[in-house]
Amino acid sequence: SASVRIQSWFRGCIVRKRVVKLRNGITRVQALFRGYFLRRSTGARISAMRARILLATSRAQEHMRLGNRTASALHVLVTCKQLSVVLHAVKDLDVSTRFSSVCCRRLVDEHRVIPVVLALIRSCNRSQPHVELLKHALNILCNVCVYETLRSAVFACANSVDTLVELLQIFRDKDEIFFKTLTVLDLFSRSRQRVWEMSQMKEQVNRLESIRQIVARKQSVEKKYSEKAGKPSGKSCGAKLSLAHQASTLLDSVLAKLRKATPSPDN
Fold this sequence. Notes:
Strand content: under 5%
Radius of gyration: 28 Å
Shape: extended
């Protein structure tokens, strides 16, 4: 009857509550044991890593510190023309700007540096050393443009957008360079005022539209070929296709912003 059903429901509630409590207790005990065994197995390794870091820090010489490496690289970049030396300096600046916002600010405050980087990009050809140089130079621009306060300074440099669009046109078959260049343009386009200024560069917008058509045609042909030949195998093929897809998405995003650009209310 009704009393039996109520008793049955109440007993069920009590049993379910006990089961949940027991399950939570078991999970907690398992977590504690896993943590204990993990700490016991990795403790020695972490201690050794900490010791190596402390030893490396104690052995670090003054010229190896990030700020001094940045200063030395800036001097080389502005004064030297030898490719191997410039490449080494650009690698140092790539590292320092990746890990330090202070170094990024220093590059912008040194008024000659960003124009020199852009001039360096314009001077590169398709040879392997120049491609390597381009990758690091674009990394520097990406690292600096991560900070909104520094983006406008890079954008304001003479021919910054022209240089990047020309780079897209020349290296549209080099997925890594193509993607890095589009990343800088995408960072530029995160301000309404900058998007409006870019949209007024009619020649560059037309070139971007042309590049988009060429890339779309290339992707269509590659898709048909891959369907006939079968799915691409290997991690490198998958990574290449993924990078090309990301670059195409970025290009579409930049162009969409340029098409919808309106003047900033401040103007």
